[in-house]
Design goal:
Helices cover 38% and strands 21% of the residues. By secondary structure, the chain is of the alpha/beta class. The protein has a domain of 239 residues: Rossmann fold, CATH 3.40.50.150. Strands 1, 2, 3, 4, 5, 6, 7, 8 and 9 form a nine-stranded mixed beta sheet that branches. Helix 9 packs across helix 12. The chain is globular. The protein starts with a strand and ends with a helix.
Length: 359
Amino acid sequence: MKTIRSLATAANNNIKKPSNSPQFNVFDRSTKLIHRSKYAKLDPELSRKKDYLRNEIAIKTIERLAFITRPFDKLLDFGSNSGNFLNQLCTTSKLPKALSGDEVEIKIIDQLNKDKEVVRNKIKDVYLFDSSESLLNRDSSQKLDHPFPGKIHKFIADEESFDHEILLQNENQFDAVISNLSLHWINDLPTTLSNINKILKPDGLFMGTVFGGDTLYELRTSLQLAELERKGGMSPRVSPLIHLNDVGNLLNRAGFSMLTIDAEDIIVGGFPDIISLCEDLQIMGEQNAVLSRSNYLPRDVLLAANEIYKSLHGEIQSNGDVLLPATFNIIFMIGWKKSKDQPQPLQRGTGEINLKEVL
């Protein structure tokens, strides 16, 4: 297994270069790279411990891929983070001791492990692509329960610039591209999705997940109310995120067809205070990276936000403690590159069954 850095700087093909127009410069990607790499390099075990969201989404991606019957000889994990998808694919899921007698949960775990085996055997070559070398190689020394039967390739380059030679050398080269919890830091998302479409083979699969607009709404509202109260105004403390209604238009513009889009809220509870939540986000590398952000959060604003969070969203426990939940709104998207071999809708007026009679 080799890790290959970006060497290409330009290519004479149809891959679009991201625009440098200020209208797309929402995020500071150099700062975001530092955020994502910090704990993976300084404290890999702690970074691993706080990867619970990425691991959960990787499992849900595996479950969805298991339903698709075709093989994926070449699969690109675009923005692969620490390789959560591959790690979960090759790790046996186990039932928590607290649920050891639950027959339904036992069946769910058994089916998940079967799904993992099915998906492992579908893939001949998996390409892990990420901008953070520390994060991408964080778990290289970890032993997996099952050896991956195919070949593993790692590439280090910026996802937004889309200028690595593996992406530029040939269009129509990947059978599938997945991207989990990475695209929300891309400035020019339409161009990136369009480029992903180009590197897929005709009728190739794109399956992605992004944080939706309702993510961390508890934290967002608490900080906004606290700043309004203490400072008389608001700073962009939480990054802007895509909304479910926008995803279909983005995928259509990028050239995808036969879209499947849905959303799910994952609620993580048990935070004793707002600082604990922010620490988790920092270790994940998911803290704010908006260019216009304020790098200083006054102590009085933080304390006020904590009390507002508790009063509006806190969950009172049996012992009287108040714990804070955090909602992560996950948007799942599936699109297929257009192909003449795909099923096509019939022309209007060719139907033979009257809908009124059916209803």
